[in-house]
Amino acid sequence: MKKIKFGPGGLGGVEEAIPNLEKYKTLGIEACEIEFTYGIYIKKKEEAFRIGEAAKRLGIKLSIHAPYWINLNSVEKEKVEKSKERILACLEVGTWLGAYRVVFHPGYYGKIGKKETYSNIKKAVLEIQEIRKEKNYTPKLAPETTGKINVFGSVEEIASLVRDTKCEFTIDFAHILAREKSYRFEETLKAFESSKKIHLHFSGIEYGEKGEKKHIPTDESAIKKLLKALPKNKEIIIINESPDPVGDSIKSIKIYADGEY
Fold first, then answer.
1. Could you tell me the CA-to-CA distances from 240 to 5, 205, 249 in Å, in that order?
2. Whether 94 contacts 135, CB under 8 Å
3. pLDDT tens across 10-39, in order?
């Protein structure tokens, strides 16, 4: 059985990064998603190399969450181009860091129909994939299932992107719960069953009719439901995005180690 790796969404600033990674190691954490959600704050190649080397030495798998300001379906061409630039910048920094995924929210429907939205986002992802290959960027693109009904990112849409653009994916089961009012564990995992690696986000979530409102602490019973549903023969990383991502990652590690699910 392959071991599941757990870790928080969040590493802290450049100065804190390596001390935090060392602390994570002592806590049994083996993954970390660097949050560039409000901007790419690791800017120098030397800094990224140092952080990446420390993560490798400590056995902590890094991923990146790209900025929130991404819309590959905007009616304004400039916004689409800026969105692509932000994803490409994450791929560049991710290459320096040795990160294996760049997670991003692809875009919004707005006033555009779902079919055309999919076509626009697919086109943009294919263009990013081409540049990624040309530049030899090493992280894989991993568009994420999203938590609001007016935002592109249903399970079916992300699975189609994987098929049509050869990208990877991020399954956020908290978002799926908020969007669909059900975790849809079995259906979702079946949609991505051909992949040997699964990158997950999981936390508690508050939601309403229109979907996600905010992340909340992760309930033990929800962690157990997730662990019970996961396949045993795949490489799985679970990133926690609750208000206490480190604490909830440790809670998940303990439940997993105890096998009490």
1. 11, 11, 6
2. no
3. 999 999 999 999 999 999 999 999 999 999
User: Which tokens belong to 213?
Assistant: 């409102």
Q: Which residues contact residue 24 at a Cβ distance below 8 angstroms, ignoring those fewer than 6 apart?
A: 7, 8, 32, 58, 60, 246
Q: Find the domain containing 36 and state its range.
A: 5-258
Q: How far is CA 4 from the centre of its chain?
A: 16
Residue type, 233: N
* Count of structural domains within the chain: 1
Distance of CA 255 to the CA centre of its chain: 22
Greatest Cα-to-Cα distance within the chain, rounded to the nearest angstrom: 52
Residue 71 sits in a domain whose CATH number is 3.20.20.150
Rounded Cα distance, 219 and 213, in Å: 17
Radius of gyration from C-alpha coordinates of the chain: 17
pLDDT tens-digit map of 149-189? 999 999 999 999 999 999 999 999 999 999 999 999 999 99
